[in-house]
Amino acid sequence: MPMLNQPSRKYRPFPQINLPDRQWPAQQITAPPRWLSTDLRDGNQSIIDPMDAVKKNRFFDLLIEIGVKEIEVGFPSAGATEFDFISGLVKSDRIPEDVLVQVLTQSREDLIRTSFESLAGARAAIVHLYNAVSPAWRDIVFRMSKDEVREIAIAGAKVMRDEAGARPDTDWHFQYSPETFSTAELDFSIEVCEAVMGVLAPTPDKPIILNLPATVEAATPNIYADQIEYFCRNLPNRDSAVISLHTHNDRGTGVAAAELGLMAGADRVEGCLFGNGERTGNCCLVTVALNMYTQGIDPGLDFSDIDRVIETVEYCNDLPVHERHPYGGELVFTAFSGSHQDAIKKGFEARGTQNDESWRVPYLPIDPADLGRNYEAVIRVNSQSGKGGFAWVLEQDQGLKLPKKMQADFSKHVQNMADELGRELNAADIWEAFKAAYHVQTANKHFQLVRYEESRTGDGTRIFAGTITVAGQEQSVSGRGNGLISSVLTTLEENFGLDLKVLDYTEHALGSGRDARAAAYLQCESGGRTIWGVGIDEDVSTASVRAVLSAANSAIK
What we know:
Elements: E1 34-37, H1 39-45, H2 53-66, E2 70-74, H3 80-91, E3 100-106, H4 109-118, E4 124-132, H5 135-142, H6 146-165, E5 171-179, H7 186-200, E6 208-214, H8 221-234, E7 241-247, H9 254-263, E8 268-271, H10 285-293, H11 306-317, H12 338-351, H13 387-398, H14 404-421, H15 427-438, E9 447-456, E10 462-470, E11 473-481, H16 484-496, E12 501-510, E13 517-526, E14 529-537, H17 540-556
Helix pairs in contact: 2-11, 3-4, 4-6, 6-7, 7-8, 8-9, 12-13, 13-14, 14-15, 16-17
Protein backbone atom coordinates (compact mmCIF):
# COMPACT_ATOMS: atom_id res chain seq x y z
CA MET A 1 0.00 0.00 0.00
CA PRO A 2 1.48 3.39 -0.96
CA MET A 3 2.09 6.15 1.57
CA LEU A 4 -0.70 8.68 1.99
CA ASN A 5 -0.44 11.64 -0.33
CA GLN A 6 -2.21 13.72 2.30
CA PRO A 7 -0.88 12.51 5.67
CA SER A 8 -2.61 15.42 7.42
CA ARG A 9 -5.83 13.41 7.23
CA LYS A 10 -4.32 10.81 9.54
CA TYR A 11 -1.64 12.64 11.53
CA ARG A 12 -1.72 15.91 13.45
CA PRO A 13 1.21 18.22 14.27
CA PHE A 14 2.24 18.12 17.90
CA PRO A 15 0.99 21.23 19.74
CA GLN A 16 3.45 23.91 20.75
CA ILE A 17 4.09 24.67 24.42
CA ASN A 18 2.96 28.10 25.59
CA LEU A 19 6.30 29.30 26.90
CA PRO A 20 7.05 32.63 25.21
CA ASP A 21 9.80 33.56 27.69
CA ARG A 22 11.60 30.19 27.50
CA GLN A 23 15.12 30.37 28.89
CA TRP A 24 16.70 27.09 27.83
CA PRO A 25 17.93 28.21 24.36
CA ALA A 26 20.42 30.55 26.03
CA GLN A 27 21.67 27.97 28.52
CA GLN A 28 24.86 25.93 28.22
CA ILE A 29 25.71 22.52 29.60
CA THR A 30 28.69 23.08 31.90
CA ALA A 31 28.67 19.98 34.13
CA PRO A 32 27.68 16.33 33.71
CA PRO A 33 24.30 15.12 34.93
CA ARG A 34 23.66 12.16 37.17
CA TRP A 35 23.73 9.11 34.92
CA LEU A 36 21.41 6.12 35.17
CA SER A 37 21.95 3.06 33.00
CA THR A 38 18.78 1.20 32.05
CA ASP A 39 20.66 -1.44 30.06
CA LEU A 40 19.71 -4.22 32.47
CA ARG A 41 16.01 -3.32 32.30
CA ASP A 42 14.93 -1.31 29.24
CA GLY A 43 17.81 -2.65 27.22
CA ASN A 44 17.25 -6.22 28.34
CA GLN A 45 13.53 -6.22 27.59
CA SER A 46 14.13 -4.99 24.04
CA ILE A 47 16.46 -7.75 22.78
CA ILE A 48 15.26 -10.93 21.13
CA ASP A 49 16.80 -13.24 23.72
CA PRO A 50 16.97 -11.55 27.15
CA MET A 51 20.25 -11.76 28.99
CA ASP A 52 20.88 -14.71 31.28
CA ALA A 53 22.56 -14.32 34.65
CA VAL A 54 26.06 -14.61 33.18
CA LYS A 55 25.47 -11.81 30.70
CA LYS A 56 23.67 -9.60 33.23
CA ASN A 57 26.57 -9.95 35.67
CA ARG A 58 29.10 -9.17 32.96
CA PHE A 59 27.13 -6.08 31.91
CA PHE A 60 26.79 -4.97 35.54
CA ASP A 61 30.56 -5.25 36.01
CA LEU A 62 31.14 -3.18 32.86
CA LEU A 63 28.84 -0.42 34.10
CA ILE A 64 30.73 -0.30 37.39
CA GLU A 65 34.08 -0.15 35.59
CA ILE A 66 33.14 2.79 33.37
CA GLY A 67 31.86 4.75 36.36
CA VAL A 68 28.06 4.55 36.25
CA LYS A 69 26.81 5.29 39.78
CA GLU A 70 23.10 4.56 39.31
CA ILE A 71 22.02 1.33 37.63
CA GLU A 72 18.49 0.08 37.03
CA VAL A 73 19.14 -3.62 37.55
CA GLY A 74 15.75 -5.02 36.63
CA PHE A 75 12.04 -5.54 37.12
CA PRO A 76 11.98 -7.97 40.07
CA SER A 77 8.30 -8.82 39.77
CA ALA A 78 8.75 -9.95 36.14
CA GLY A 79 9.92 -13.42 37.15
CA ALA A 80 12.44 -15.55 39.02
CA THR A 81 15.36 -14.70 36.72
CA GLU A 82 15.03 -10.99 37.40
CA PHE A 83 14.33 -11.40 41.11
CA ASP A 84 17.21 -13.82 41.69
CA PHE A 85 19.70 -11.65 39.83
CA ILE A 86 18.79 -8.57 41.87
CA SER A 87 18.74 -10.34 45.22
CA GLY A 88 21.98 -12.09 44.27
CA LEU A 89 23.73 -8.75 43.75
CA VAL A 90 22.69 -7.75 47.26
CA LYS A 91 23.50 -11.05 49.00
CA SER A 92 26.90 -11.41 47.32
CA ASP A 93 27.83 -7.86 48.33
CA ARG A 94 28.70 -6.96 44.73
CA ILE A 95 27.26 -3.45 44.84
CA PRO A 96 29.97 -0.85 45.56
CA GLU A 97 29.24 1.64 48.34
CA ASP A 98 29.12 4.58 45.93
CA VAL A 99 26.65 2.88 43.56
CA LEU A 100 22.87 2.95 43.82
CA VAL A 101 20.92 0.11 42.23
CA GLN A 102 17.38 0.78 41.10
CA VAL A 103 14.41 -1.50 40.50
CA LEU A 104 11.33 -0.75 38.45
CA THR A 105 7.72 -1.48 39.34
CA GLN A 106 4.27 -0.63 38.11
CA SER A 107 1.96 1.00 40.61
CA ARG A 108 0.42 -2.21 41.90
CA GLU A 109 0.67 -3.27 45.53
CA ASP A 110 1.84 -6.86 44.94
CA LEU A 111 4.51 -5.77 42.44
CA ILE A 112 5.79 -3.04 44.75
CA ARG A 113 6.11 -5.47 47.67
CA THR A 114 8.01 -7.95 45.50
CA SER A 115 10.36 -5.14 44.44
CA PHE A 116 11.22 -4.30 48.05
CA GLU A 117 11.70 -7.98 48.86
CA SER A 118 14.27 -8.34 46.07
CA LEU A 119 16.38 -5.64 47.73
CA ALA A 120 16.23 -7.09 51.25
CA GLY A 121 19.49 -6.37 53.03
CA ALA A 122 20.68 -3.68 50.60
CA ARG A 123 22.69 -0.82 52.01
CA ALA A 124 20.84 1.66 49.77
CA ALA A 125 18.56 1.43 46.74
CA ILE A 126 16.10 3.29 44.53
CA VAL A 127 12.59 1.98 43.97
CA HIS A 128 11.12 3.34 40.74
CA LEU A 129 7.33 3.57 40.53
CA TYR A 130 5.44 4.40 37.35
CA ASN A 131 2.03 4.60 35.76
CA ALA A 132 0.91 6.07 32.43
CA VAL A 133 -0.89 9.43 32.50
CA SER A 134 -1.47 10.59 28.91
CA PRO A 135 -4.90 10.81 27.22
CA ALA A 136 -4.31 7.93 24.81
CA TRP A 137 -3.48 5.58 27.68
CA ARG A 138 -6.26 6.91 29.91
CA ASP A 139 -8.89 6.66 27.19
CA ILE A 140 -7.80 3.62 25.19
CA VAL A 141 -5.69 1.39 27.45
CA PHE A 142 -7.14 1.97 30.93
CA ARG A 143 -10.47 3.67 30.22
CA MET A 144 -10.01 5.77 33.34
CA SER A 145 -10.57 9.36 34.31
CA LYS A 146 -7.82 11.71 35.41
CA ASP A 147 -8.87 11.26 39.04
CA GLU A 148 -8.59 7.48 38.74
CA VAL A 149 -5.15 7.67 37.13
CA ARG A 150 -3.93 10.08 39.79
CA GLU A 151 -5.25 7.75 42.49
CA ILE A 152 -3.21 4.86 41.06
CA ALA A 153 -0.05 6.91 41.56
CA ILE A 154 -1.04 7.94 45.09
CA ALA A 155 -1.88 4.37 46.12
CA GLY A 156 1.45 3.11 44.83
CA ALA A 157 3.33 5.86 46.63
CA LYS A 158 1.65 4.90 49.90
CA VAL A 159 2.74 1.27 49.53
CA MET A 160 6.29 2.44 48.80
CA ARG A 161 6.28 4.63 51.87
CA ASP A 162 5.02 1.80 54.10
CA GLU A 163 7.38 -0.83 52.68
CA ALA A 164 10.36 1.46 53.17
CA GLY A 165 9.26 2.24 56.71
CA ALA A 166 9.16 -1.47 57.51
CA ARG A 167 12.80 -1.85 56.35
CA PRO A 168 14.66 0.98 58.13
CA ASP A 169 18.11 -0.58 57.72
CA THR A 170 18.17 0.33 54.02
CA ASP A 171 18.67 3.88 52.80
CA TRP A 172 15.65 4.06 50.49
CA HIS A 173 15.34 6.51 47.61
CA PHE A 174 12.14 6.99 45.63
CA GLN A 175 11.60 7.63 41.95
CA TYR A 176 8.30 8.29 40.23
CA SER A 177 7.61 8.41 36.49
CA PRO A 178 4.45 9.82 34.96
CA GLU A 179 4.87 7.40 32.06
CA THR A 180 3.99 8.85 28.62
CA PHE A 181 4.87 12.31 29.96
CA SER A 182 5.86 13.49 26.48
CA THR A 183 2.27 13.10 25.18
CA ALA A 184 0.42 14.07 28.37
CA GLU A 185 -0.99 17.41 29.51
CA LEU A 186 1.77 19.24 31.38
CA ASP A 187 -0.44 20.52 34.16
CA PHE A 188 -1.84 17.04 34.78
CA SER A 189 1.67 15.55 34.95
CA ILE A 190 2.60 18.19 37.50
CA GLU A 191 -0.60 17.48 39.42
CA VAL A 192 0.14 13.75 39.65
CA CYS A 193 3.79 14.30 40.63
CA GLU A 194 2.74 16.78 43.29
CA ALA A 195 0.30 14.20 44.70
CA VAL A 196 3.07 11.57 44.88
CA MET A 197 5.39 14.06 46.57
CA GLY A 198 2.62 14.72 49.11
CA VAL A 199 2.72 11.07 50.13
CA LEU A 200 6.47 10.50 50.12
CA ALA A 201 7.36 13.88 51.68
CA PRO A 202 10.73 14.51 50.00
CA THR A 203 13.06 17.25 51.23
CA PRO A 204 15.95 19.12 49.67
CA ASP A 205 18.28 16.81 51.61
CA LYS A 206 16.40 13.68 50.54
CA PRO A 207 14.73 14.57 47.21
CA ILE A 208 12.46 12.41 45.13
CA ILE A 209 13.53 11.58 41.58
CA LEU A 210 10.87 12.62 39.11
CA ASN A 211 11.52 10.96 35.78
CA LEU A 212 9.89 12.68 32.80
CA PRO A 213 10.02 10.18 29.96
CA ALA A 214 9.60 10.77 26.28
CA THR A 215 8.04 7.32 26.27
CA VAL A 216 7.15 7.95 22.66
CA GLU A 217 9.15 10.66 20.93
CA ALA A 218 6.31 12.53 19.27
CA ALA A 219 7.76 15.99 18.64
CA THR A 220 10.95 17.83 17.85
CA PRO A 221 13.45 18.01 20.73
CA ASN A 222 12.81 21.71 21.35
CA ILE A 223 9.23 20.80 22.32
CA TYR A 224 10.55 18.32 24.88
CA ALA A 225 12.86 21.03 26.25
CA ASP A 226 9.86 23.36 26.58
CA GLN A 227 8.01 20.63 28.48
CA ILE A 228 10.93 20.16 30.87
CA GLU A 229 11.35 23.89 31.50
CA TYR A 230 7.61 24.35 32.04
CA PHE A 231 7.56 21.43 34.48
CA CYS A 232 10.58 22.70 36.43
CA ARG A 233 9.12 26.20 36.66
CA ASN A 234 5.69 25.11 37.85
CA LEU A 235 6.43 22.13 40.11
CA PRO A 236 5.85 23.03 43.77
CA ASN A 237 8.86 22.30 45.99
CA ARG A 238 11.18 22.01 42.99
CA ASP A 239 14.17 21.95 45.35
CA SER A 240 12.94 18.62 46.75
CA ALA A 241 13.01 16.90 43.36
CA VAL A 242 15.69 15.60 41.01
CA ILE A 243 14.41 15.93 37.46
CA SER A 244 15.40 12.94 35.36
CA LEU A 245 15.14 12.47 31.59
CA HIS A 246 14.33 9.23 29.82
CA THR A 247 14.19 9.87 26.09
CA HIS A 248 13.36 7.42 23.34
CA ASN A 249 14.49 7.66 19.77
CA ASP A 250 11.32 7.25 17.70
CA ARG A 251 12.12 10.39 15.69
CA GLY A 252 15.88 9.84 15.77
CA THR A 253 16.54 12.73 18.15
CA GLY A 254 16.70 11.04 21.56
CA VAL A 255 20.19 12.38 22.26
CA ALA A 256 19.26 15.91 21.18
CA ALA A 257 16.14 15.82 23.37
CA ALA A 258 18.23 14.77 26.38
CA GLU A 259 20.77 17.54 25.77
CA LEU A 260 18.11 20.21 25.38
CA GLY A 261 16.32 18.81 28.43
CA LEU A 262 19.48 19.34 30.48
CA MET A 263 19.66 22.90 29.20
CA ALA A 264 16.02 23.28 30.31
CA GLY A 265 16.87 22.43 33.92
CA ALA A 266 16.99 18.64 34.29
CA ASP A 267 19.53 16.98 36.59
CA ARG A 268 19.76 13.37 35.46
CA VAL A 269 19.85 11.34 32.25
CA GLU A 270 18.63 7.77 31.84
CA GLY A 271 19.60 5.62 28.87
CA CYS A 272 21.50 2.66 27.52
CA LEU A 273 25.01 2.21 26.21
CA PHE A 274 24.84 2.69 22.43
CA GLY A 275 21.12 3.40 22.60
CA ASN A 276 19.63 -0.08 22.83
CA GLY A 277 15.97 0.03 23.84
CA GLU A 278 12.41 -0.57 22.74
CA ARG A 279 11.47 0.28 19.14
CA THR A 280 14.17 2.62 17.80
CA GLY A 281 15.98 2.69 21.10
CA ASN A 282 16.71 4.74 24.19
CA CYS A 283 18.99 7.71 24.59
CA CYS A 284 22.61 6.66 23.99
CA LEU A 285 24.62 7.40 27.12
CA VAL A 286 27.90 7.00 25.22
CA THR A 287 26.95 9.72 22.74
CA VAL A 288 25.66 12.20 25.33
CA ALA A 289 28.72 11.68 27.54
CA LEU A 290 31.27 12.01 24.73
CA ASN A 291 29.43 14.99 23.26
CA MET A 292 30.15 16.68 26.59
CA TYR A 293 33.75 15.47 26.50
CA THR A 294 34.31 17.18 23.15
CA GLN A 295 33.13 20.43 24.76
CA GLY A 296 35.74 20.20 27.51
CA ILE A 297 33.42 18.69 30.17
CA ASP A 298 34.48 15.59 32.07
CA PRO A 299 31.36 13.38 31.87
CA GLY A 300 32.47 11.19 34.75
CA LEU A 301 32.21 8.09 32.54
CA ASP A 302 35.31 6.32 31.27
CA PHE A 303 35.30 5.26 27.62
CA SER A 304 39.10 5.21 27.21
CA ASP A 305 38.86 1.61 25.96
CA ILE A 306 35.73 1.93 23.87
CA ASP A 307 36.41 -1.20 21.84
CA ARG A 308 36.27 -3.34 24.98
CA VAL A 309 33.01 -1.63 25.98
CA ILE A 310 31.58 -2.41 22.54
CA GLU A 311 32.74 -6.02 22.74
CA THR A 312 30.90 -6.51 26.04
CA VAL A 313 27.72 -4.74 24.91
CA GLU A 314 27.57 -6.69 21.67
CA TYR A 315 28.10 -9.97 23.53
CA CYS A 316 25.45 -9.25 26.15
CA ASN A 317 22.83 -7.80 23.79
CA ASP A 318 23.64 -10.04 20.85
CA LEU A 319 23.21 -6.91 18.73
CA PRO A 320 25.94 -5.17 16.71
CA VAL A 321 27.00 -1.58 17.27
CA HIS A 322 26.51 0.05 13.88
CA GLU A 323 29.68 0.94 11.96
CA ARG A 324 28.55 4.58 11.84
CA HIS A 325 27.39 4.86 15.44
CA PRO A 326 28.78 8.10 16.94
CA TYR A 327 32.17 7.64 18.60
CA GLY A 328 31.96 3.85 18.84
CA GLY A 329 31.32 2.65 15.29
CA GLU A 330 34.13 0.93 13.45
CA LEU A 331 34.14 3.55 10.69
CA VAL A 332 33.41 6.79 12.55
CA PHE A 333 37.06 7.90 12.57
CA THR A 334 37.75 6.59 9.07
CA ALA A 335 38.08 8.70 5.95
CA PHE A 336 37.95 7.19 2.45
CA SER A 337 37.41 10.46 0.56
CA GLY A 338 40.55 12.02 -0.82
CA SER A 339 39.77 15.57 0.34
CA HIS A 340 38.92 14.34 3.84
CA GLN A 341 42.11 12.29 3.99
CA ASP A 342 44.25 15.22 2.92
CA ALA A 343 42.72 17.52 5.56
CA ILE A 344 43.12 14.92 8.34
CA LYS A 345 46.72 14.22 7.34
CA LYS A 346 47.55 17.93 7.44
CA GLY A 347 45.80 18.24 10.80
CA PHE A 348 47.98 15.55 12.35
CA GLU A 349 51.09 17.06 10.80
CA ALA A 350 50.19 20.46 12.25
CA ARG A 351 49.80 18.95 15.73
CA GLY A 352 53.38 17.78 15.52
CA THR A 353 54.68 21.31 14.89
CA GLN A 354 52.41 23.42 17.11
CA ASN A 355 52.45 23.90 20.87
CA ASP A 356 48.67 24.35 21.08
CA GLU A 357 47.20 21.49 23.17
CA SER A 358 43.66 22.10 21.90
CA TRP A 359 42.35 19.50 19.48
CA ARG A 360 42.04 20.89 15.96
CA VAL A 361 42.10 18.12 13.39
CA PRO A 362 39.69 18.54 10.47
CA TYR A 363 36.82 16.03 10.30
CA LEU A 364 37.66 14.50 13.69
CA PRO A 365 35.65 16.03 16.58
CA ILE A 366 37.53 13.91 19.12
CA ASP A 367 41.00 12.41 19.34
CA PRO A 368 40.58 8.67 18.64
CA ALA A 369 43.44 8.01 21.06
CA ASP A 370 41.26 9.27 23.93
CA LEU A 371 38.96 6.32 23.24
CA GLY A 372 41.75 3.78 22.90
CA ARG A 373 41.74 3.83 19.10
CA ASN A 374 44.98 4.16 17.15
CA TYR A 375 45.46 6.31 14.07
CA GLU A 376 46.11 3.42 11.68
CA ALA A 377 42.40 3.08 10.90
CA VAL A 378 41.72 6.80 10.58
CA ILE A 379 42.56 6.86 6.88
CA ARG A 380 41.67 3.90 4.71
CA VAL A 381 42.03 3.58 0.97
CA ASN A 382 39.57 2.53 -1.72
CA SER A 383 38.67 3.75 -5.20
CA GLN A 384 37.28 7.00 -3.74
CA SER A 385 40.52 7.93 -1.99
CA GLY A 386 43.07 10.54 -2.95
CA LYS A 387 46.81 10.86 -2.72
CA GLY A 388 46.71 11.98 0.90
CA GLY A 389 45.14 8.67 1.94
CA PHE A 390 47.73 6.22 0.69
CA ALA A 391 50.52 8.63 1.62
CA TRP A 392 49.27 8.56 5.21
CA VAL A 393 49.04 4.76 5.18
CA LEU A 394 52.58 4.43 3.79
CA GLU A 395 53.91 6.83 6.40
CA GLN A 396 52.17 5.01 9.25
CA ASP A 397 53.01 1.52 7.99
CA GLN A 398 56.46 1.96 6.43
CA GLY A 399 57.65 5.37 7.64
CA LEU A 400 57.88 6.71 4.08
CA LYS A 401 57.17 10.41 3.62
CA LEU A 402 56.51 10.76 -0.07
CA PRO A 403 57.12 14.17 -1.67
CA LYS A 404 53.88 15.80 -2.80
CA LYS A 405 54.65 15.45 -6.49
CA MET A 406 55.47 11.79 -6.02
CA GLN A 407 52.15 11.26 -4.25
CA ALA A 408 50.41 12.35 -7.43
CA ASP A 409 52.51 9.93 -9.47
CA PHE A 410 51.83 6.98 -7.16
CA SER A 411 48.11 7.74 -6.96
CA LYS A 412 47.66 6.34 -10.47
CA HIS A 413 49.08 2.99 -9.38
CA VAL A 414 46.87 2.89 -6.29
CA GLN A 415 43.78 3.80 -8.28
CA ASN A 416 44.48 1.08 -10.81
CA MET A 417 44.87 -1.51 -8.06
CA ALA A 418 41.67 -0.38 -6.31
CA ASP A 419 39.70 -0.53 -9.55
CA GLU A 420 41.14 -3.94 -10.41
CA LEU A 421 40.48 -5.49 -6.99
CA GLY A 422 37.16 -3.73 -6.42
CA ARG A 423 37.64 -3.48 -2.66
CA GLU A 424 39.29 -1.49 0.08
CA LEU A 425 43.09 -1.56 -0.02
CA ASN A 426 44.94 -2.39 3.17
CA ALA A 427 48.45 -1.35 4.13
CA ALA A 428 49.95 -4.53 2.66
CA ASP A 429 48.21 -3.89 -0.69
CA ILE A 430 49.53 -0.34 -0.84
CA TRP A 431 53.05 -1.44 0.06
CA GLU A 432 53.00 -4.10 -2.67
CA ALA A 433 51.78 -1.51 -5.19
CA PHE A 434 54.55 0.85 -4.13
CA LYS A 435 57.27 -1.77 -4.44
CA ALA A 436 56.03 -2.78 -7.88
CA ALA A 437 55.71 0.81 -9.12
CA TYR A 438 59.22 1.85 -8.08
CA HIS A 439 61.06 -1.47 -8.15
CA VAL A 440 61.76 -1.45 -4.42
CA GLN A 441 62.82 -4.73 -2.78
CA THR A 442 61.60 -6.71 -5.79
CA ALA A 443 63.33 -9.37 -7.87
CA ASN A 444 63.66 -9.50 -11.67
CA LYS A 445 64.60 -5.84 -12.00
CA HIS A 446 66.46 -4.82 -15.14
CA PHE A 447 69.04 -2.83 -13.15
CA GLN A 448 69.93 -4.08 -9.69
CA LEU A 449 72.78 -2.94 -7.47
CA VAL A 450 75.22 -5.60 -6.32
CA ARG A 451 78.05 -3.52 -4.86
CA TYR A 452 79.85 -0.25 -5.48
CA GLU A 453 82.69 2.00 -4.36
CA GLU A 454 82.94 5.75 -4.49
CA SER A 455 86.20 7.70 -4.81
CA ARG A 456 87.33 11.25 -5.53
CA THR A 457 89.98 12.74 -7.72
CA GLY A 458 92.12 15.69 -6.75
CA ASP A 459 89.80 18.15 -8.48
CA GLY A 460 86.75 16.88 -6.52
CA THR A 461 85.30 14.70 -9.25
CA ARG A 462 83.39 11.70 -7.91
CA ILE A 463 83.95 8.28 -9.40
CA PHE A 464 81.34 5.55 -9.17
CA ALA A 465 82.71 2.04 -9.72
CA GLY A 466 80.50 -0.91 -9.09
CA THR A 467 78.79 -4.07 -10.11
CA ILE A 468 75.18 -4.09 -11.16
CA THR A 469 72.96 -6.83 -12.51
CA VAL A 470 71.59 -6.00 -15.94
CA ALA A 471 68.83 -8.27 -17.14
CA GLY A 472 70.12 -10.93 -14.81
CA GLN A 473 73.79 -10.62 -15.79
CA GLU A 474 76.40 -8.96 -13.56
CA GLN A 475 78.38 -6.15 -15.14
CA SER A 476 81.22 -3.98 -13.83
CA VAL A 477 80.56 -0.36 -14.66
CA SER A 478 81.90 3.08 -13.74
CA GLY A 479 81.33 6.76 -14.36
CA ARG A 480 82.33 10.24 -13.26
CA GLY A 481 80.37 13.24 -12.01
CA ASN A 482 80.38 16.13 -9.59
CA GLY A 483 78.55 14.04 -7.02
CA LEU A 484 77.56 10.47 -6.32
CA ILE A 485 74.17 10.74 -8.04
CA SER A 486 75.60 12.46 -11.12
CA SER A 487 78.36 9.83 -11.39
CA VAL A 488 75.73 7.04 -11.37
CA LEU A 489 73.71 8.93 -14.02
CA THR A 490 76.85 9.22 -16.17
CA THR A 491 77.47 5.51 -15.72
CA LEU A 492 73.97 4.69 -16.98
CA GLU A 493 74.29 7.03 -19.95
CA GLU A 494 77.78 5.90 -21.04
CA ASN A 495 77.16 2.18 -20.57
CA PHE A 496 73.49 1.84 -21.54
CA GLY A 497 72.59 5.04 -23.39
CA LEU A 498 70.04 5.98 -20.74
CA ASP A 499 69.62 9.74 -20.37
CA LEU A 500 68.11 10.82 -17.04
CA LYS A 501 67.98 14.45 -15.89
CA VAL A 502 67.47 15.09 -12.16
CA LEU A 503 64.65 17.49 -11.33
CA ASP A 504 64.42 17.04 -7.56
CA TYR A 505 65.93 14.97 -4.77
CA THR A 506 64.81 14.48 -1.15
CA GLU A 507 65.75 12.09 1.60
CA HIS A 508 64.80 11.36 5.20
CA ALA A 509 65.60 8.92 7.97
CA LEU A 510 63.40 5.89 8.59
CA GLY A 511 63.26 5.49 12.34
CA SER A 512 65.96 6.54 14.75
CA GLY A 513 68.99 5.17 16.52
CA ARG A 514 71.62 2.77 15.19
CA ASP A 515 69.13 0.72 13.24
CA ALA A 516 67.68 3.70 11.37
CA ARG A 517 67.53 3.43 7.61
CA ALA A 518 67.30 6.10 4.95
CA ALA A 519 64.81 6.72 2.17
CA ALA A 520 65.76 8.68 -0.94
CA TYR A 521 63.35 10.02 -3.59
CA LEU A 522 64.53 11.10 -7.02
CA GLN A 523 62.44 12.95 -9.60
CA CYS A 524 63.87 12.70 -13.10
CA GLU A 525 63.02 13.63 -16.66
CA SER A 526 63.65 11.21 -19.50
CA GLY A 527 62.42 11.56 -23.04
CA GLY A 528 59.82 14.12 -22.01
CA ARG A 529 58.46 11.90 -19.22
CA THR A 530 58.65 12.55 -15.48
CA ILE A 531 59.96 9.50 -13.67
CA TRP A 532 60.37 8.77 -9.98
CA GLY A 533 62.89 6.56 -8.27
CA VAL A 534 63.02 5.38 -4.67
CA GLY A 535 65.88 3.90 -2.71
CA ILE A 536 65.86 2.46 0.81
CA ASP A 537 69.01 1.37 2.59
CA GLU A 538 70.82 1.48 5.92
CA ASP A 539 73.29 3.89 4.29
CA VAL A 540 72.00 7.17 2.89
CA SER A 541 74.51 7.18 -0.01
CA THR A 542 73.52 3.68 -1.02
CA ALA A 543 69.85 4.69 -0.76
CA SER A 544 70.50 7.47 -3.29
CA VAL A 545 72.22 5.01 -5.67
CA ARG A 546 69.25 2.68 -5.40
CA ALA A 547 66.93 5.62 -6.12
CA VAL A 548 68.78 6.30 -9.40
CA LEU A 549 68.54 2.65 -10.44
CA SER A 550 64.83 2.66 -9.46
CA ALA A 551 64.25 5.59 -11.82
CA ALA A 552 66.29 3.82 -14.51
CA ASN A 553 64.11 0.73 -14.23
CA SER A 554 61.00 2.87 -14.62
CA ALA A 555 62.53 4.67 -17.60
CA ILE A 556 63.10 1.49 -19.58
CA LYS A 557 59.87 -0.24 -18.48
